[in-house]
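It is worth pausing here to work through a concrete case rather than discussing structure prediction in the abstract. The textbook approach is simple: state the sequence, then state the predicted structure, then interpret. We follow exactly that order.
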Amino acid sequence: QVQLVESGGGLVQTGGSLRLSCAASGGVRAIISLGWYRAVPGKERELVARVSVLGHTNYGDAVKGRFTISRDNIAHTVDLQMNDVTPSDTATYFCTTATNFETYWGQGTQVSVLT
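Step two, the predicted structure:
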């Protein structure tokens, strides 16, 4: 089992920046990837960014060039640097991790972008 705890959500002005952090604990040796998804009511969760244990990254089209994911394999954390945010980035952001057998999700942290 892996436990995930997110932090860093909140209110931010359009064009501003915000940094989300996620700390993993428990069965961290089995982790093969860490990432972030986001969700708004009435829509499916969408990929924001993901990073593998080898450091390979991929981003959702909506955030490419604005968001950066980074991972600390020693501290077992994954951060999401959000720059140049827009109201369309308003969502609940979920940290997620995958092992070979299971996917785990955090509780989510709310990000609200003010116009």
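Step three, interpretation. The longest strand covers residues 18-26. Residues 9 and 111 are 5 Å apart (CA to CA).
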